[in-house]
Every structure is written in C-alpha cells, then in structure tokens.
Amino acid sequence: MTASRENRESLRDPKTVLVVDDHELVRNLMVRVLEAAGLKAVAVGTGLDAIELVRRDDGQLGCVVQDLSMPEMRGEEVIRQLNEIRPGLPIVAFSAQDEHSAAERLAGLDVAGYEQKPFQIQAMVELIRGLIQRS
C-alpha cells in the first residue's frame, strides 16, 4: 500500500499519531496504514508508555489512538491522564465494545471519536487526518 502524493501533501505540517495498543500485530498494522496514508506514526504497548511519551512531547503529537481494552491500565484511565497532561490533545478510542458500552466507559472524558472494531481503515485514517489538521 503506498500513499498518494496528494495524501502526503495534504498535511502541510504533519504531526505524529500515537497508537496505543497492547497487541503488537495491531500496533504494527496501524502504524503501517497511517504511514501509507502519509501520516507519521509511533506506537507503544502500554498506557504507562503512552503517558510518559505525552509528558515528554514537545508538540509533535497531533493525535492519540487508544485501545480501551488494555491489561494493567484500562484505556479510559490512560485517556483521563492524557486529558490532564495535555488538554485538547485529540484522542480516538477504539474497542470491540458496542458504541453504547464504550460511551458509558468514556463518559466525562475528552475524546474526539470512537471506532468499533473491526473498523473501516479509511474511515479511521480520515478521522485522524481531520483531527490533526485542526490541531
């Protein structure tokens, strides 16, 4: 899969997408898909790693894509801490849970979007691209 020149040029100042998922296969696939779409991406396997990366961020992160079903630290707790560390950082949550259940878990958190697995890759890419362009 290669990114078209138009897709790469659509972001004048591309920022990095942080992918947070405990499954290595999912992380690697998401990074490849995002990079093929002309976006920069980095992935971590734990919520603690995501929190540390956001704390150290110098403004390069434009969006976080966070799995809700994580061992050790639940996805909503990671999101809560990311909201505190960097208010306004766009976060897209995803999970195999239905939207209603996810909405209950995400109540009160600043989340820019939710995608249910299995999600449409192009829809996820467009959502992320739009969030980065606005940030």
Automatic annotation (TrEMBL):
<dbReference type="InterPro" id="IPR001789">
    <property type="entry name" value="Sig_transdc_resp-reg_receiver"/>
</dbReference>
<dbReference type="InterPro" id="IPR011006">
    <property type="entry name" value="CheY-like_superfamily"/>
</dbReference>
<dbReference type="InterPro" id="IPR050595">
    <property type="entry name" value="Bact_response_regulator"/>
</dbReference>
<dbReference type="GO" id="GO:0000160">
    <property type="term" value="P:phosphorelay signal transduction system"/>
</dbReference>
<feature type="modified residue" description="4-aspartylphosphate">
    <location>
        <position position="67"/>
    </location>
</feature>
<keyword id="KW-0597">Phosphoprotein</keyword>
<feature type="domain" description="Response regulatory">
    <location>
        <begin position="16"/>
        <end position="132"/>
    </location>
</feature>
<dbReference type="Pfam" id="PF00072">
    <property type="entry name" value="Response_reg"/>
</dbReference>
<protein>
    <submittedName>
        <fullName>Putative transcriptional regulatory protein TcrX</fullName>
    </submittedName>
</protein>
